[in-house]
Every structure is written in C-alpha cells, then in structure tokens.
Design brief:
The complex is a heterodimer of chains A (603) and B (225).
Chain A lengths: L1 H28 L1 H54 L10 H19 L1 H4 L3 E5 L5 H4 L13 E2 L7 H8 L4 E8 L5 E11 L6 E8 L1 H51 L14 H57 L6 H32 L7 E4 H11 L1 H7 L2 E5 L5 E4 L1 H18 L5 E7 L3 E7 L34 H11 L3 E7 L3 E9 L26 E4 L43 E2 L6
Parallel strand pairs in A: 7-9, 7-13
Antiparallel strand pairs in A: 1-2, 1-5, 3-4, 4-5, 6-8, 9-10, 10-12, 11-12, 11-14
Chain B lengths: L3 E5 L3 H13 L3 E5 L2 H11 L3 E5 L7 H11 L4 E5 L4 H9 L4 E4 L4 H12 L9 E4 L2 E4 L4 E4 L2 E3 L3 H12 L5 E2 H9 L8 H14 L9 E4 L3 E4 L3
Parallel strand pairs in B: 1-2, 1-3, 3-4, 4-5
Antiparallel strand pairs in B: 6-7, 7-8, 8-9, 10-12, 11-12
The chains are: A alpha+beta (603), B alpha/beta (225).
Chain lengths: 603, 225
C-alpha cells in the first residue's frame, strides 16, 4: 500500500517535473514568450498600485465631501432643534413626546431641503448621560426609567458620546446593522443641543450606502480597465517582439543553412534599420568566409593537382631513362666491371624511383578523395597467399621463415587490389625489420569483421613509435640498412587504403620483441567496425621455430603458429586483459608500450 | 619482312629511345612529332601498328586515335601517363586496341607490340556462323546477309576467339590472354570496352546482344549459330 502511494507520488512528481521542464524549455527557447510574460508581470504590478492609489483617492474625496455636507446639515439641524426646544426642559415628564415631535420635524424638513448635499439621514436625540444600549433594546427609552431619547439611539457608539457630553462636535464612521443582516457603513455626527434645562445630544446618522455603491462601481471599472490594459500590453509587446524576433529567427535559419554547407545562403536586407545592418554585416561575414573556404579549397586542389601533374610529367622522361638503362643493362657483357655495376645500380634505383612516383601519385589521389573503390567478395586467405608470393624475393634475401596460418576462411567484401597492397607493405615491412626471425601471419573472421595480423620478432618499436609508423616518410632508424627499398609511403598509403574500406590498421611494438600490425576490415562493405576478431597485442613472446621460406599451416593441424591465446608472459602479466581477443585496444595506455590504433574516430 | 611501326610522340628523346629499342628488335620505325601529321602519315605509309602518345601538342591523342580509327583498322597502342579509369576508358573508347602506362620496360612494350602484330593461325577455308553473322577467317571478313561488316583486326580476333569454341564461356582474364597476349591478369576494362565496340558493329540491337552474350558474373560467350 505504502509502495503504491509512494509510486503514485513518484509518478506525480515525475509528471510535474516533466511539465515544469517543458515550460522551462519553452521559456528558454522563446524570446517572445519571455518578453510578453515579463511585460505582463511588470505592468500588473504597475496597474495594481495605480488602481489602489486611485481608489483610495476617490474614496477619500467621496468621504470628505460627505463629511462636509454632513457637518453643514448637522449645523442646520442643531439650529432648528434649538429653536424648537428652547423652552423644553428635558428633565420634566412628557418630554419624550416633545422630543419625538421635534425629531420628526427635523428629519422631514431635512429630507425635504438638504438631501441633495448630505443625502438622507436619521437623527437621534438623547437626553441622558447613561449608556444607551444597556437601558433600552428598542429605539425609544422607557419613560421614567431612563433618560428620554428619540430615534435609533443604540447605533451610537459610546466613544462618540463622551466628547459630545463634554460639549464638542464629533464625527465617527460606524457600521449600522441593516435589514439584510449585513452592516451598512454610516457617518455619525454628534453635537450638544442647548435647551431650557440641560443640554441634549443630537446625533445625525448618514448611511454611506450610496457612496459604497459608487466606490464599488469605480472599483469594478478600475479592475476591468486594468485587465483590458494588461491584455493590450501583452498584445502590443507580443507584436513588437515579433517584429524584432522574426528577423532574428530568419537570421538564425540562414546561419544554420550556411553552417550546413549552403555557402550561397544570404539574409535579405530591408531598409536601413538595425536588423538591416545586422543582415548586411552577416552577409559580409558570410561572403568573406565563403571566399576563404573557396581559397582554401583551391589551394588544396592546386596542391593535389601539382602533385599529380608532377608525377605525370616525370613519367615521360623516366620512361626514356628507364629504356636507356635497360638497353645498357642488356649489353652489360660488353661493358667493363665498373660500367656494368653502374648500369645495374641505375636499373635498380629506377625501380625505386618508379615506385616512389607511383606511391606519391596514389597518396595524392587518396588525399584528393578521388580514389576508386572496387569492392568484391573474396577470401582474404587468397590475397594473403598472393601477397606472400610477391614478397618471395624478400623472404629469400632475408632467409626469413614466413608462417601463414590460413586455417579460418575469411570471406569479406573488400577491394582486393588495395588489400593486397596493404598486405604487401606489411609483409615487406616485417621482413625488412624482422632480423630473419620468423614472421607470422594469421587470418581470422567473426560475424562482422575479418582480420589479418602480421607479427615479426625483430627490433620492434620503441615506446611512442607505434603512433609514428603511419607517418609519411617516417623511418624507425635512419641508419639501418634497408633491403626492400621502401618508399617511406607504404604504411601511410596502407592506412589510407584501410580507411577507405572502413577498416582499421593498427600497430603495436616493443623494443626487441618485435611488432604487430593488424588489419581489420568489415565483412560487409560500409559496415561500422566495433571489434576485431584478432588481438593486436600478442600473448606469446617466443617465435616458433621454422626453416626459412614460406610455410602455410595445414588446415587440419594448424601447428605452424602458436595458438592465439595462451600463457601470459610474466613480464606482461596484469595488463593484458584488453588484449585477450575482444580487440578493444582503445584502452592502450602508456603502460602498454606502443599500442596505437591507426584509425580515425569518425566514420 | 619487318613490321613498320609509326611512333607518334612529341617528346623527341622518348621518340628516339623508342626508335632505338624497336629497331633493336627488328622493327621499322617512323616518327611523327605532331598529332596533326599522324593521319596523313598513316594514309601515306600504311604502317602495321601505331604507337600513340596521348599527351600531344596540336591535336589531342584521343582525337588522333579517333581520326585514325575512322579510316583504318590499323592496331593502335596508346602510351599514357595517366592510370585513372576515366583516362584509360576514354582512350580505349576512342579506338585504341591496347594501352601501356609510362614508365614501362622495353620488354613489356615489345611484348605488347608483338601481341598486336601476331596473326591468328588460320586454316584454309575456315567458316563460322553466329546467328546470321558469317565469319570468313582466312579472308578476315565478317558478313551479315552478304553485306560485309568492317571490323578492326582486334575486334575480328575477339570475335573469332569466341566463335571457335561456341559453347565455352570465356572469362575476361582468358580473353586478355588469348586476344591481347597478356601473361598476367591485367586490366579487364580492356575487354569490357572492346566487347562494347564489337557489339556496336555486329549486333542488330546492341542493347539485346545475340552474337556476343554476357554470362553474368563470369564473362562472355558466342551466341548460337
């Protein structure tokens, strides 16, 4: 039960928070709403204060006029009474009737002559000094038992009687009970009246119902006027804000479209006002940005064109030189030893020159984003075999065992030409830096991705170098002798090739423990990669024993390569969880030397 | 008798080097450095093969190739520095039989030239039929209903290669080897472009071919006789 209650409360709170949130969002997002609401809020305060002041003023004036008129009326009434009662002694018997008569005359004459100024009134004539309410419940006092009085004497408050008894004129506002039960406010003017005997007290009661009605009318009029004013103000401020906000909204829309790449988008300029100036300066800014972007694009295009043109222009003379060199080389028997060797060097270096030129052209093409992707469904193992064949001369020259573990089928939609180029580069790189120790290649696949890992046990990479290997023209050790005659662009192109297919190319290395390069490609072209089927960081340290040459693991035994998982070497214990096959090497930190992902973040 | 080769190239060093190499291989060469002179020379001397550089002053290599092809079926091999598909396909569509990308090795060039000059071994009075198209191999003639269809030697070779084994499907790689003389798998764009050119001549409706049929995912084969 308590649970249900608390649940309900939570839901209510949630709903409330949602509503509040929606209002807050609206408040934050709409300037128009904000302006209208604040205008209404502030002007309500002003209208309220103004209304109160006005009402007080009017009420004061009304009462003042009433009081003056009442005083005049009281004066006249006293004169009349004194004339009538000049010879009456209130202490004698029979005065009650006399008093009543006098009062009758007074009220009838008063009602007749002066009602226009002070309005209708009732009169009370009191003779005694006793409190009125205690002796009598009706208007007239009992003769003989109390002071004689005439009229509704019980409405006269005692506070008023004191000054009158002492001989002063006094006024007081009271509430007189009326027939409906609700009180009617009234003004009472009290004064002493001289007679033959002792003084009488005359009280004139002026009901203020007319004034109250007037005041109520004024109040309602004021309230209506205030509400109308508020409504008008809200409308006006809404219209005015809209006038300001609309161009701002337009400007925002234009700016958004501009930011989306529609560089020709401009704001319309009307007139000469501030908004027009805003539009003008915005348009100038947009024009300037557009110009600069165009300039940058042109520079970029020019630079790429230049690289491409240079590569093309160099080709014709290179062709001539190459042919000349071949002709010389073909006639090497006729040359002496020095010339023969020179011809050999010429031919070899021309090969290198040509591949450098080709790489330059390829990378300019990749930079320009005009590289073509020819995707086919192929088994990665075939590409690995082909690539291994193309580097056979390096395998032989370095006497390196090249161990291919191609036990898992790995079909994927890739550009075979580019994948072969990547693998050729990775293999040449591994053979070049492998110190003739075995180079291992492993292919694996899972549901979403295929991966090839090329591992060597050579000099490896120093901490921090794994991030540099993909840099253009970067060399691990400039003093080292190179065999493959790489151009220094191979890994950079490989990285771009991998990216072009939505893949990753990553490097890991440790000094004297060799290095690992992993190529991961999505099985379906265009898919996003999340994990790799193979770990980047190796778990086995020692290279397998093998004879130099290319060896492919038999599909049944699969013994040419160490298993993908195994004992964690003592030196690396404790930090290897991430390398256990899920391929998430984003965790590669400083404690993991040289593990670097050579992939971009945003595909 | 040695084959005569017309070299059209504005780069005098390269032209000279080409001459040296080709003469060393036993060819007769003539050099023309201006594209505009190429066509008159072809008319005049009727060379066995034209080696055409695509970057030429005066007249664009593509235009020269088109002009030559409009009048003659002489084999044309392009020399190009550009390897982009657009450039290659444009060159092939203008009528070139083959192309070779700079910088090339002399042996490669000579191999391509020899492949283009090579004649199919012919048997006397060999006649073949695909649909209503008749191929007279020794006479190098293709007819439809008596009227001859002019084909370049390469197109003729392509058609004969397909027609000689009517039921066999030829992959592009096999055609490259048999017709163009490529040892290694090379550019299959060559095959695509030339099959289209061939169809535009021998088919009644190139959109619905009856003579050279496409086998999706594999290659091409000849239509039924």
């Amino acid at each position: 039960m308590a649970d249900r209650v608390s649940g309900l409360r939570r839901r209510l709170e949630l709903a409330l928070a949602e509503r509040v949130g929606a209002v807050r969002v609206l408040w934050r997002r709409s300037m128009q709403l904000r302006v209208v609401l604040s205008t209404v809020a502030m002007s309500s305060v002003v209208v309220l204060v103004l209304g109160l002041v006005l009402q007080t003023q009017i009420a004061d004036r009304l009462l003042q006029g009433k009081q003056q008129a009442a005083l005049v009326q009281a004066d006249i009434s006293r004169g009349n009474l004194e004339r009538d009662l000049a010879r009456v002694d209130p202490d004698r018997d029979g005065t009650q009737s006399t008093l009543d008569e006098a009062l009758d005359r007074l009220t009838s004459s008063g009602a007749g002559s002066d009602s226009r100024d002070a309005g209708a009134f009732e009169a009370v004539l009191v003779a005694g000094t006793e409190p009125l309410g205690s002796t009598s419940t009706t208007g007239a006092a009992m003769p003989g038992q109390a002071d004689p009085s005439s009229g509704p004497a019980d409405v006269v408050p005692p506070q008023l009687r004191d000054p009158v008894l002492k001989g002063f004129l006094a006024t007081k506002y009271v509430t007189v009970p009326a027939a409906g039960g609700a009180g009617v406010p009234a003004l009472i003017v009290g004064q002493p009246v001289r007679t033959a005997g002792r003084n009488l007290q005359l009280y004139l009661i002026f009901p203020l119902s007319a004034e109250q009605r007037t005041l109520a009318l004024i109040q309602s009029t004021l309230a209506l006027a205030g509400l109308a004013l508020l409504g008008l103000l809200a409308g006006i401020s809404s219209i005015v804000t809209r006038q300001v906000v609309r161009p701002v909204r337009q400007a925002a829309d234009v700016a958004e479209r501009f930011a989306d790449g529609h560089l020709d988008e401009r704001m319309p300029v009307y007139g000469d006002d501030e908004v027009a100036r805003l539009a003008e300066s915005y348009n100038e800014m947009a024009a300037s940005i557009q110009q600069q972007i165009h300039q940058l694009e042109e520079f970029g295009a020019l630079q790429r064109r230049f690289t491409s043109d240079v590569s093309h222009e160099l080709r014709t003379p290179l062709t001539t030189v190459r042919m000349a060199a071949e002709v010389l080389h073909d006639q090497a028997e006729d040359l002496d030893a020095v010339a023969r060797r020179s011809a050999q060097l010429l031919v070899d270096e021309l090969d290198r020159f040509e591949s450098l030129l080709g790489d330059l052209l390829e990378i300019s093409r990749l930079d320009a984003g005009v590289a073509e992707l020819a995707v086919e469904r192929v088994d990665l193992r075939d590409i690995v075999r082909r690539s291994a064949e193309t580097v056979r001369h390096l395998v032989d020259a370095t006497a390196t065992p090249l161990l291919l573990d191609l036990t898992e089928p790995a079909e994927a939609e890739v550009d075979p030409r580019r994948v072969e180029r990547i693998l050729r580069n990775l293999l040449a790189n591994a053979l070049d830096h492998g110190e003739s120790r075995p180079v291992e290649v492993r292919v694996a696949a899972d549901e979403h991705a295929v991966a090839v890992v090329v591992r060597d046990h050579g000099i490896g990479l120093k901490p921090g170098e794994a991030g540099l290997v993909f840099n253009r023209f970067w060399r691990a050790d400039p003093s080292r002798q190179r065999r493959s005659g790489g151009t220094g662009l191979g890994l950079a192109i490989s990285l771009e090739d991998a990216r072009l297919q939505g893949g990753w190319l990553q490097a890991w290395g440790e000094t004297d423990h060799g290095s690992v390069f992993r190529l991961t490609l999505p099985r379906t072209a265009g898919d996003l990669l999340r994990t790799s089927p193979l770990p980047l960081i190796p778990v086995t340290g020692a290279p397998a024993d093998a004879e130099p040459g290319i060896h492919e693991a038999a599909a049944t035994t699969g013994t040419a390569l160490p298993p993908p998982t195994g004992e964690i070497p003592a030196t690396r214990a404790g930090d290897d969880e991430a390398g256990d096959g899920d391929g998430r090497d984003d965790t590669a930190g400083p404690d993991r030397p040289g593990a670097v992902s050579g992939r971009g973040e945003a595909w | 008798m040695s084959s005569r080769i017309l070299v059209v190239d504005d780069d005098s060093s390269l032209a000279e080097m080409l001459t040296i190499v080709l003469q060393g291989e036993g060819f007769d060469t003539t050099v023309v450095s201006d594209g505009a002179d190429a066509l008159p020379t072809v008319r005049e001397s009727a060379p066995d093969l034209v080696l055409l550089d695509l970057m030429l002053p005066g007249m664009n290599g593509i235009d020269v190739c088109r002009a030559i092809r409009a009048e003659s079926g002489v084999p044309v091999v392009m020399l190009t520095a550009k390897t982009d598909t657009v450039d290659i396909v444009l060159g092939l569509e203008s009528g070139a039989d083959d192309y070779i990308v700079k910088p090339f090795k002399p042996k490669e060039l000579v191999a391509r030239i020899r492949a283009r000059l090579r004649q199919f071994p012919t048997e006397p009075s060999e006649q073949m039929q695909i649909g209503d198209v008749t191929i007279d191999v020794p006479a190098h003639q293709v007819r439809r209903g008596g009227s001859p269809i002019p084909l370049t030697p390469l197109e003729f070779d392509l058609l004969v290669a397909l027609a000689r084994k009517p039921r066999q499907v030829f992959t592009r790689e096999v055609l490259l080897e048999q017709v163009w003389g490529y040892r290694h798998a090379a550019d299959t764009r060559l095959v695509n472009v030339h099959v289209q050119r061939l169809r535009s001549k021998v088919e009644k409706d190139p959109e619905h071919p009856e003579v050279v049929l496409t086998v999706r995912g594999v290659g091409y084969k000849a239509g039924p006789p």
